[in-house]
Amino acid sequence: MTDPQVPLGHEEREQSAHATTSSQSLRPAASSSAGGAPRMSEEQLLAYTSADPFAQTSSKPWEYEATSPYLRKVAIIWIILVMAAHLFMGFTVGLSFTGATVTTIDKFAFPGVGVVISILSWLALTRPRLRANSDGVEIRNILGTRFYPWQVIYGLSFPEGSRMARIELPDFEYVPVWALQSGDKQNVITKVRSFRDLEARYMPQDD
Question: pTM of the entire structure?
């Protein structure tokens, strides 16, 4: 039996200090989990940013979804201009003599190129979408799709003079949200308010 008056040895003091530190580090985690999802620590944030950006998503139903009617109108106007220009070039390519032989295939090549450009433009400009649920936010822009959990989100902002909204991230970083365009006017105001209702419900509050 150990005499209580005898001081602890070096190894025993280290084990006791380690146990005390471990128990103290667990207390804040337990209390924060009781009040909702806490912010990610620096280690967790580093692990998240270095992970595959397309690996994380949510299997829960989406509570919010937004697209941009303004971008759809832009796509339609752009396609009309592209097709008009290429049809005109296809019609006039054989009217003036340039010394080169112009075949029927050449005349249809210009409209064909216009069709390809129009399809790609439509797919690109109608692709942006913003979705959210209790797990986080999925942002799909013209290029790429990424899911962000609420723990790394610091809110949705719409800077004055900006054409689109953006999601604020740690270290003063952000990601643009093409689905929320200033060109949508009153419609985008309603969508921003609906998104901020989800922010108030799911986004962790800073201490």
Answer: 0.70
